Amino acid sequence: MTRLYNFCAGPAALPEPVLETAREDMLDWHGRGLSVMEMSHRSSEFVGIAERAEATLRKLLAIPDEYAVLFLQGGASLQFSAVPLNLMPEGGRADYLNTGQWSKKAIAEGKRFGSVNVAASAEAGNFSSIPARDSWQLSADAAYFHYTPNETIGGVEFHWVPDVDAPLVADMSSTILSRPVDVSRFGVIYAGAQKNIGPAGLTLVIVHRDLLGRSRPLCPVMLDWKTAADNDSMYNTPPTFALYLAGLVFDWLQELGGLTAMAELNRRKADKLYAAIDNSAFYANPVEVASRSQMNVPFTLADASLDKLFLQQSAEAGLLNLAGHRSVGGMRASIYNAVPEAAVDALIAFMQDFEQRNG
Ligand SMILES: *Cc1c(COP(=O)(O)O)cnc(C)c1O
Predict the structure, then answer these.
(1) Which residues contact 58 (CB under 8 A, 6 or more apart)?
(2) Are 254 and 52 in contact (CB under 8 A)?
(3) For the whole prediction, is pTM greater than 0.90?
(4) Domains of the chain
(5) Tens digits of residue pLDDT in 242-294
(6) Catalytic residue chosen out of the listed positions 102, 225, 226, 269
């Protein structure tokens, strides 16, 4: 068995110790004679697994009691619809910030349900920076303010939390758990699991309880956060195996020292990769330095005709999934929590070697 270094943007690398525990548990969970996938979600065993996962997540993120933690399905993309259906009244309005491809998708979906005010957009600058706070045009009557703290495709990340009057709604799919965050600043945080939480199929929503019970009459029951909150995320069958695996990831993070330790490690990984890019005329990253993502590092070659060769030879060297998103091309290294520092070191060594042979 060989496990290679995986820089996939999502579904992304999982921590090896977590996969080993899952393998041990696979046929027989804790001597119960069945796997987690085969348990009733109402069994005391599985309810215990789910409660433990939530408790560990609450500890990791220091989530205040006034917030509900929901484990849902449908991905972050379904939350693009759930957010307006839960928070925007009929004929209402919401503010959105446009900082990249995921912002745009959230905005397009929001427009189906009401009036969307794009408070500021970085599109004219090809999404290489975050619009200055004093340029934002906020509405007085916004039901919420939506933004994308880390744009997974463009590699643009907020290293600060916006200060706005409306409830702050954040798509944290590709940044959650990468470092501590002050949850009390937010109305809603949501994230697809397959970047930094666990396997695909699970969606996390952290919502202030004051925001529950405001959904539109037409909101499908399965999209209403209150339904999930009132039923401990078990109104219907939750994605049991994905939730179990996420719980193992939370345990792993806790053992490593929690999010402060992860932040330190992630900063080190990102700093050395950006330094390798910046110190070379062969590679480039287009994002303004203050807004560079610590999780997704896009880069281009000065000679784009070498892209194919780079991807082919990096894969042969055991460095997987370095192609940029199909919408932007180039390269992208996603260096989430589960991507070890040794993977980043191996990537940098390969990049320097490739430059020497082709520069
Ligand atoms: C991956 C991603 C999404 C889409 O997530 P799905 O779970 O596939 O719907 C949305 N937003 C961001 C920021 C992402 O990184």
Answers:
(1) 69
(2) no
(3) yes
(4) 16-255 (3.40.640.10), 257-358 (3.90.1150.10)
(5) 999 999 999 999 999 999 999 999 999 999 999 999 999 999 999 999 999 99
(6) 102
